[in-house]
Design goal:
Order of helices and strands of chain A: HHHHHHEHEHEHEHEEEE
Oligomer: heterodimer
Shape of chain B: globular
Helix content of chain A: 40-55%
Structural class of chain B: mainly alpha
Shape of chain A: elongated
Strand content of chain B: under 5%
Helix content of chain B: over 70%
Radius of gyration of chain B: 20 Å
Number of helices of chain B: 16
Structural class of chain A: alpha/beta
Largest interface: A-B, 80 and 83 residues
């Protein structure tokens, strides 16, 4: 039960919309006369709410392997529709004052989505950082060449293959999610790349072992060792990144 | 540019609208406007795509070409069937059930100034969300899986047999693959010639956000009626609840505006809203005429739900199950449960596939 309550609290987060929803439900439970609206918006929501808090429901979702996404049962509650509908009903004939008041309450009690830390000004229509596109364009294979392998800093890993399937990586997002215990933190190259400073003497032999032709380093992350002495060739500097070629691994030609 | 335009027109304008004509007169409205056909047509397309994509994906690892051919053929046939039905019905009927464009100005004249201002604010709020969706990038780690699956299908022609994170080959991960939305996004990319990442991040929000508000509009019209100030006022409040609904990473609103192009978001918003609207129509005892069309659309929406996320079929069935059980008990209409069970057969099939093959 505590686990379910935690899921509910996490879903609610910082806002009071679930409380407004509950208030709207109570209001409509007593005030709504239209049968179809009562059934779909009010009584079904109450049943869904009760079902959500039943430990048996959580056990079933766990058995289905969806325990982590249990919060999605709450998606079935039509919070937006119910709050807006009850609001309009409540203000009755005081439409102008009522609407201003309602809008103000909703704005103050919620959280503006475009202030979210994960939303930023788009640099292009791909909505991928320009640096990723420029780096990928630099290392894309020629028509007669096989796909290339490259190692990227953490912050770029999510984006590379959203741009092109021609650039492959020895590890990807699965290394960056600590909750994914099944394969997190296990790739030898990532074990070196996540350190500060990055030990190039340890990294370059691994790049060769894993057939990586390219390495991208963030200039703000210090490195131990001289890239040139380790056998790397600097081929481009793009925004905050240095792009190196590892000549120990050739660019493979396609076999027809 | 011409390919982009033609591809967009086919996939997002002509095909859904013409397919939607198949639903003409079957969704409980006495008089229908041209835009009433878009949502049913769009959902029909998605459901048909899911039915084509799943077997193609399972039996042909390099099946993108085949998927494109079969999907285009199916969309074309559906659109032609819709057009044919509309032409045939127009000849047969004395009074048109389709509101003619010439009647639009008259409808506008009936609206008062206050109502018009509410409509303008509601439209401005939606336009603002569209502008932000176009000009703001939202980071989500899941894109490294789903968007890449679309990119892979489009660029390599391989369906779900390449690890999105690295590029290595892999077996079919049926748990994720049964939700074929990334393949549909790859289809959009193929037909329009637009990069799959642009399709997901820039193009789809411009389609899905208005469509979701259209679904809210359908619900609002059932709650308040299509005329008067209440419907636009309802849409304004809905917009505010969406824009300020980022109270946690789990809410429907957060998914709607931060992960618009992902199946989970479409499930949590468009699909569930359509089911609410359809239930309101089905349970409306004052509405005359048969409800068969509405039930068929419920079944197709269920197929579309399975396309969105691996748990989509389960969530849609759970939602319908609860609502129909409550309605059957309260209205003493056990037949509602039987109809719901029939509509949920697709859900059962997809869930069985998930449990057996997953």
């Amino acid at each position: 039960m505590l686990e379910i309550w935690t899921v509910f609290r996490n879903y609610c987060g910082t806002g009071i919309y679930p409380l407004l929803f509950l208030a709207a439900l109570v209001y409509l439970f007593f005030a709504e006369k239209d049968r179809k609206i009562r059934l779909v918006l009010v009584e079904s929501s109450l049943v869904t709410g009760v079902l959500f808090f039943l430990p048996l429901s959580k056990a079933v979702m766990n058995a289905l392997g969806e325990g982590e996404t249990y919060y999605r049962i709450l998606w079935l509650l039509p919070m937006t529709v119910v709050i807006a509908y009850a609001g309009i009903r409540l203000i009755g004939r005081h439409r102008r004052t009522g609407m201003v008041l309602l809008a103000a309450i909703l704005m103050v009690s919620g959280h503006y989505v475009y202030k979210n830390q994960f939303i930023s000004k788009a640099q292009n229509r791909y909505h991928i950082p320009d640096a990723v596109i420029a780096i990928c364009n630099e290392i894309l294979p020629e028509e007669d060449e096989e796909r290339v392998w490259s190692v990227f800093p953490e912050e770029l890993i999510y984006y590379v293959r959203q741009y092109t399937s021609e650039v492959q990586m020895p590890y990807g997002r699965e290394m960056l999610e600590p909750s994914w215990a099944w394969n997190w933190d296990t790739h030898p190259i990532y074990e070196v790349m996540r350190e500060n400073p990055i030990d190039l003497n340890a990294l370059v032999p691994l790049l060769t072992e894993y057939h990586c032709q390219y390495l991208v380093l963030n200039r703000s992350v210090p490195v131990k060792g001289d890239p040139a002495k380790c056998g790397l060739e600097l081929i481009a500097q793009i925004e905050a990144y240095d792009l190196y070629r590892n000549p120990a691994v050739e660019l493979y030609k396609k076999v027809n | 540019m011409i390919q982009k335009l033609l591809g967009f027109l086919f996939l997002f304008v002509l095909s859904p609208l013409c397919t939607g004509l198949l639903w003409r007169g079957r969704l409980g409205k006495k008089r229908e406007w041209i835009w009433d056909f878009y949502l049913p047509g769009f959902l029909t397309q998605l459901a048909v795509f899911q039915v084509i994509a799943v077997p193609v994906m399972i039996f042909d690892a390099h099946g993108m070409e085949l998927l494109v051919i079969l999907s285009c053929a199916a969309f074309g046939i559906l659109a032609l069937a819709g057009l044919g039905r509309a032409c045939f019905a127009a000849k047969k009927e004395r009074e048109s059930v389709l509101a003619a464009p010439s009647s639009y100005p008259a409808a506008l004249k009936e609206t008062g100034w206050e109502e018009r201002i509410f409509w303008l604010i509601a439209a401005a709020a939606v336009l603002f969300q569209l502008y932000m969706a176009y000009t703001r990038a939202s980071f989500d780690g899941d894109d490294a899986y789903y968007v890449v699956q679309s990119v892979l299908a489009d660029q390599t022609g391989v369906l779900n047999r390449i690890r999105p994170y690295t590029g290595l080959s892999t077996d079919l991960d049926i748990r994720h693959a049964l939700a074929a939305l990334p393949l549909w996004e790859a289809l959009v990319a193929r037909l329009t010639g637009i990069h799959a990442a642009i399709v997901a991040h820039t193009l789809l929000p411009l389609v899905l956000i208005p469509l979701t508000y259209f679904a809210y509009g359908k619900i609002g019209a059932k709650l308040f009626g299509a005329k008067g100030w209440k419907l636009p006022a309802f849409l304004i409040l809905v917009s505010i609840l969406q824009i300020f609904g980022n109270t946690s990473i789990y809410t429907n609103a957060t998914f709607f505006l931060m992960r618009t192009w992902q199946g989970k978001s479409i499930m949590a918003n468009l699909i569930l809203l359509v089911l609410i609207w359809l239930l309101l129509e089905i349970l409306d005892e004052t509405a005359k005429g048969g409800k068969t069309g509405l039930w068929v659309l419920v079944a197709l929406t269920n197929v579309a739900a399975a396309m969105m996320t691996s748990m989509g079929a389960f969530l849609a069935a759970l939602f319908l199950g609860i609502a129909s059980l409550v309605a059957a008990v309260r209205q003493k209409r056990p037949s509602l449960l039987g109809k719901t069970v029939v509509c949920c057969i697709p859900n059962a099939v997809f869930l069985a596939m998930l449990l057996i093959m997953g």
